[in-house]
Write a structure and sequence with these properties.
Helix content: 40-55%
CATH superfamily: P-loop containing nucleotide triphosphate hydrolases
Mean pLDDT: 87
CATH topology: Rossmann fold
CATH class: Alpha Beta
Shape: globular
Order of helices and strands: EHEHEHHEHHHEHHEHHHEHH
Low-confidence stretches: 285-291
Number of strands: 7
Structural class: alpha/beta
Strand order of the largest sheet: 2-3-1-4-5
């Protein structure tokens, strides 16, 4: 029986699509064609697109023939926030390695807010601040999500990266992750923006190309070159001109997530001070400041 030895588990809109592509590029890594497998957060639902894999046998089938690869994994950002995923993964693959990507929380939720509008018609007609007040998915905090995993898995089996590292130091970041999961760390990933955000110029075209039936056809029947071309066309249909966060929105989000940033950086022992205002950053002692 072949099961994954690593799982990329979010957070949503923090680079999981890019990680999916960068892992798939590496010839020593096996990742199924499906991004968002979501098996470990499946709840009874008739929506096959939302939950494409529902049984352990279906899950195992995803990795048939993967035994010759040095690293075998899957990518599902839903695992990050779903309250039962950590327990379910631990019960099935207790030795699995876990990769988490984090992004400055207000900017991440701003990206989700726009994604919901362009792809699902959700949050239309309300401001980002109003959406933050009423949409529970936009209020999800890092600390609670990560602690569920840290309480169950050895810390050596958890790797956490920051979204910005995928642009500022892609090669170094991916070499570290390749090494972490047991893949060939000499492979150099092809730098490209994957799953870019934006506001659709044509909402009809955007919703058509993102419809679950159309995506299923593309995943299972279209040549990869055609799928890549359609992704490029989809990106060209997106405009970032109206996707600028205001200072008022940034300030509201900061107040909402400030305490979570402080708690999270202590939990994961990682410096997140660049997400904080200068007055909220930990004060270093004179000895520490001078080294």
């Amino acid at each position: 029986m072949t099961l994954p030895n690593f799982i990329v588990a979010g957070a949503p809109k923090a680079g999981t699509q890019s990680l999916f592509e960068y892992f798939r590029e590496n010839p020593s890594v096996f990742v199924p064609n499906i991004k968002e497998v979501r098996f470990f957060c499946y709840e009874k639902s008739r929506n096959r697109y939302k939950y494409p894999i529902r049984t352990l046998d279906e899950y195992k089938d995803l990795f048939k023939g993967a035994g010759r690869f040095s690293a075998i994994g899957e990518v599902s950002s839903f695992y990050f926030w779903h309250p039962e995923s950590a327990k379910r993964i631990n019960a099935t693959i207790p030795d699995v390695k876990l990769v988490f990507s984090l992004r400055e929380p207000t900017q991440r939720q701003f990206s989700i807010y726009h994604m919901n509008m362009r792809s699902r018609g959700r949050n239309e007609g309300i401001s980002f601040i109003e959406a933050l007040k009423i949409d529970s998915h936009l209020q999800i905090k890092y600390y609670d999500c990560l602690k569920r995993y840290i309480d169950l898995f050895p810390r050596r089996n958890i790797s956490i990266i920051l979204f910005e590292s995928l642009t500022t130091s892609l090669g170094e970041t991916m070499r570290g992750l390749y090494r972490f999961v047991g893949a060939n760390d000499e492979y150099e990933p092809k730098a490209k923006v994957h799953n870019p955000g934006g506001v659709p110029r044509s909402k009809f075209f955007h919703r058509l190309i993102n419809h679950s039936a159309f995506r299923n056809v593309g995943r299972n029947y279209m040549p990869k070159s055609i799928v890549a071309s359609l992704k490029d066309i989809r990106s060209m249909n997106l405009s970032k001109d109206s996707m600028k966060i205001t200072e008022e929105e940034r300030e509201f989000g900061y107040r909402l997530f400030r305490d979570d940033i402080l708690r999270t950086q202590d939990l994961i022992d990682m410096d997140l001070s660049h997400w904080l205002k200068p007055e909220d950053r930990p004060v270093l002692s004179e000895a520490a400041a001078t080294g």
